[in-house]
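Hi there,

I know you've been waiting on this one. I reran it after we fixed the sequence typo, so this is the corrected version. Both the input and the resulting structure follow.
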Amino acid sequence: MSKRKIVIIFVLIVPLFIIFALLNITQLDARIHTEQGNQSISEEIDNGDNSPVEEEPSDQEEPDGEEDLAEDPPDQSNSENKGSGQSLNDDADMLILVNKETSLAPDYTPDDLTVPNVRFSFEGPDPKQNMRQVAAAALEELFAGAEEAGFYLFAVSGYRSYSRQETVYTGHVERLGETEANKISAKPGHSEHQTGLAIDITSESASFSLSQKFGETREGKWVAKNAHRYGFIIRYQKGKEDLTGYSYEPWHLRYVGKEAAHEIFEKDLTLEAYLENR
């Protein structure tokens, strides 16, 4: 074969290889973005909402998963008490009780929200990355402590507005009925996430899910034994469902300060019992 023919063949074939390679790269990139999008949606299942992943099919996620991304950022303005809802006018009050009987005002938004410098299970920015400053600082210390012990934690959901919780709760009622929804989801105004003091966490060993499976992992066991050292408690404990009103949630942490957290841990109390005995 002459050199001229070889050159012609080379000129014709090489561009075809380049086009083929570019098509494969484009398809791979699209697949990666799709998988990331699916993971982001699955991470929408978080408490205040109280819906464990392992106990519900994957299609029973929070309704309209893109709502969190579309939600307006917190206005950072503290508001006055309206109706029966509480307003946290005292920034030092980290022991505020929010449960099925006690609520926050619909327009309450913490005025010191900030994003803790920790790993998240999704890409931000997103309003649910926020926490109150003191809780965010404590979470950073907890994550650092876990990492020193060889465990890697991931934050999933912190602050959630009244309106966002309303969307979450309504979706559960439509899907499960009010009776069942009340077992796993907080009514708007009754979610600890609105305080900015609660955070849902997970780990790779729990498949980045919010489920009781997390409590059985090495990371979950470390958190259960050490969270109080950083001012956090496991808010919804196993065996305390009749007192808290919610099922066991090893992933849901509530900041109460080191002194209160230590006593709650040592005496095996719920937050309700601790506050009642003060």
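Quick highlight: Residues 99 and 190 are 5 Å apart (CA to CA).

Best,
R. S.
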